[in-house]
Inverse folding.
């Protein structure tokens, strides 16, 4: 008896290859998108650290220029010549808000969904940005 080796047609081999390749390609695309999103979030987080430092510096420069703190956020933005910057809550832009709290004091605040408010109080500048839970 002569044993015959199994024969596969080219069509069959292409079909098997496609059945493996198509899901693997989809999986690779999903992983690449997830990695790109994580990279973007990491880049934004680094940028946000600098943004919150810079906005304090900007307000302090305006205070020095005026000899007082601005009356409102709109006055501050008019003097700066731009809107206050935004930080990112899991990739979504969130506004930083200014509020005058006294003759020579102010607070800056932004809210992140997962961590409540972050507040900078000019009366305790050494504390920096402090997380406030509700």
């Amino acid at each position: 008896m002569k044993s015959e080796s199994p024969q596969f047609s080219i069509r069959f081999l292409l079909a098997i290859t496609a059945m493996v390749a198509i899901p693997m390609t989809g999986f690779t695309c999903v992983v690449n998108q997830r990695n790109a999103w994580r990279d973007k979030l990491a880049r934004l987080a680094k940028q946000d650290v600098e943004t919150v430092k810079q906005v304090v510096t900007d307000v302090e420069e305006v205070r020095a220029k005026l000899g007082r703190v601005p009356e409102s956020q709109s006055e501050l933005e008019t003097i700066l010549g731009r809107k206050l910057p935004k930080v990112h809550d899991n990739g979504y832009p969130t506004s930083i808000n200014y509020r005058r709290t006294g003759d020579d004091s102010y607070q800056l605040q932004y809210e992140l969904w997962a961590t409540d408010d972050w507040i900078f109080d000019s009366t305790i500048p050494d504390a920096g940005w402090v997380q406030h839970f509700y």
User: Anything to note?
Assistant: Helices lie at 10-66, 73-80. The radius of gyration is 28 Å. Residues 109 and 119 are 4 Å apart (CA to CA). The beta strands are 86-89, 92-95, 97-102, 105-112, 116-121, 129-132.
